[in-house]
Design brief:
The protein has 18 helices and 16 strands. With 450 residues, the protein is an alpha+beta fold. The longest helix has 20 residues.
Length: 450
């Protein structure tokens, strides 16, 4: 029999890891709720027609496809099969795929349920997504996204609101970040003044890799994509600009570029009076490679570790239109929970409270005291105290070893005397102190100290 394993790019999560992950999810969820967002969930699978064409050419390649039920080869494109042409074959053997992100399924949800929801509709969603990427540190094939989106409103107030959500969550997590901001219209303006509007996506895909491959790498990729040296010189001037004023001067002949600058300024009129704990930085090199962004775009990077993006998002004016609902603008952000976990673990930022340890472990020495301990456990649990006990009487050494491995905060040892007097032996497992208290006194002590 082969050794059990899991698919590459996926992970198992044990109790301690899951407690920390839930700490991240709970923190994000509380902030989402505070800002008036409502929860939804969408299916793990979507129709491939829903997913394809929304993420750009590179994104489409990373979609996980699901084979049709039954004998899928019966209805396969036989010409494609004999030619071994997988691109042509896929449409005849795969009708579904695993969701690549939560935004496209959300747009599909809005269109399907538009008569049931109230606009502007503010939703949050915390679910796993899948990408057929090459697994590496901080990059997995199965990972969670935590999204907040608003649809049905054009106001740049929402962009400021979403940046404040980023700022609030990362402050609560004690994680210092840089929140980078740009606008896709500004980038469209760059393409326009460079004379390559028809190669806009080629330009943004290359620019988005600047921090990984450097300016020379961007130049090579642009030239390889057929963009001229002259166009690159204009792009280079823009990439080296540091302020909105410098960019504005370079885009004075582009109406779309000037509109992007105006949107960024309007965004700051909402955000700046509020102030932020974390740095908010204009970054002209920020492109966000996905096709559907049309306005302000965001990306979050941790300051104290080289992890890359741990969050991102932006404005998308046309996404619901591809599903038949025109004129509904949206804007949203996503938290990369898995990367956030890795950063917090690296920097040791998880508080002890994030690891919901076993608060009380009861030790019964024989059948009678074990039954009594079981009844005490029920009363402790009624008071919300995390409690457990061994499934049967055993030697005290064995039970104490188990309590240690479970990281129990307290152990209650019950013998015949304790059962008769009602005074139970309570041991603090951190400092070793022991005292005899009634169950009510124990409940009062624990509820006020843990």
């Amino acid at each position: 029999m082969s050794k059990p394993s899991i698919p590459e790019g996926t992970r198992d999560f044990g109790p301690e890891v899951l407690a920390k992950r839930n700490y991240i999810f709970d923190t994000i969820k509380k902030v989402f709720l505070k800002y008036g967002f409502q929860p939804i969930e969408t299916p793990t699978m979507e129709k491939l027609s829903t997913l394809t064409g929304k993420y750009g050419e590179e994104g489409d390649k990373l979609l996980f496809k699901i084979l049709n039920n039954g004998d899928f080869l019966q209805k396969a494109n036989q010409d494609a099969l004999s030619e071994k042409n997988s691109t042509k074959l896929i449409s005849s053997i795969c009708e579904r795929g695993l969701r690549y992100d939560l935004t496209v399924p959300f747009a599909r949800y809005v269109v399907m349920h538009r008569n049931e929801i109230t606009f502007p509709f503010k939703r949050y969603q915390i679910q796993p997504v899948w990408r057929a990427d090459r697994p590496q540190k901080g990059r997995y094939r199965e990972f969670y996204q935590c999204d907040a989106d608003v649809v049905g409103a054009d106001s740049l107030m929402h962009e400021a609101e979403l940046v404040k959500i980023y700022d609030t969550v990362f402050s609560l997590l004690n994680l210092k970040v840089i929140i980078k901001v740009n606008n896709r219209k500004v980038l469209e303006g760059v393409a326009e003044v460079a004379g390559i509007s028809d190669q806009f996506m080629d330009m943004t895909i290359a620019i988005d890799k600047l921090d990984k491959i450097g300016l020379d790498g961007v130049k090579k990729e642009l030239l390889d994509r057929g963009i001229s040296e002259n166009a690159f010189e204009i792009i280079e001037k823009v990439l080296k600009s540091k302020t909105l004023s410098e960019i504005s001067a370079l885009l004075e002949n582009s109406e779309i570029g000037k509109k992007g600058i105006e949107e960024l300024k309007k965004f700051h009129t909402y955000l700046d009076p509020l102030g932020t704990d974390n740095e908010v930085q204009f970054d002209i090199t920020l492109a966000r490679g996905l096709n559907y962004y049309t306005g302000c775009i965001f990306e979050v990077a941790a300051k104290d570790t080289p992890m890359g993006s741990i969050g991102g998002g932006g404005r998308y004016d046309n996404l619901t239109g591809v599903f038949g609902l025109q004129g509904v603008s949206g804007v949203g952000i996503s938290f990369g929970a898995d990367r956030i976990y890795d950063v917090m673990e690296t920097l040791q930022l998880f508080p002890e409270s994030a690891q919901k340890q076993l608060q009380v472990f009861l030790v019964g020495l024989d059948d009678a005291t074990h039954l009594f301990a079981f009844q005490c456990a029920a009363k402790l649990r009624e008071k919300g105290i995390v409690t457990d006990l061994f499934p049967e009487p055993a030697k005290i050494k064995k039970q104490m070893e188990y309590a240690n491995k479970r990281n129990a905060a307290y152990v209650i040892v019950i013998g015949e005397e304790e059962m008769q007097t009602g005074k139970l032996s309570l041991k603090n497992m951190q400092n070793g102190n022991q005292e005899k208290l009634s169950l009510e006194e124990i409940i009062n002590l624990i509820t006020h100290t843990i």
